[in-house]
Task: structure prediction
Amino acid sequence: MKTTKAEAIVLDKAAIGVSFLCVIHCLSIPFILALGPALNLWFWGSEGFHLALLLVVVPLSLIAFGLGYRYHRSTKMLIPGLIGLAIVVIAAILEMFLIGPVTAAVITSTGGVCLIIAHLMNLRAQKSCRAT
Result:
């Protein structure tokens, strides 16, 4: 099944949205913790939410980068994209064993911003290609 350029662009936009949600989530954790431990039991602050985000962010980003590359043949977005994916995954692992939620939020936000930048680069490169 051949994927159209429009479908690849939709995937990048979805990945940007999910990455943005990840950044918002991470930036809100310190406020949730400050308001009280009971709020941190809410799904927003749980490991289940982090796992759900990872299960969406990683494959969605890899597919969007792969499809984008098929159209524009530029690898520039892979540097911030792969760095962002690595940061997000490593932060999730470290949070389980070594670091607290606030530190994990800062690290994960950095990865999320890298992913947003990479997807914007991918979108720009796709839009600059002639229509197929």
Summary: DSSP finds five helices and no strands in the chain.
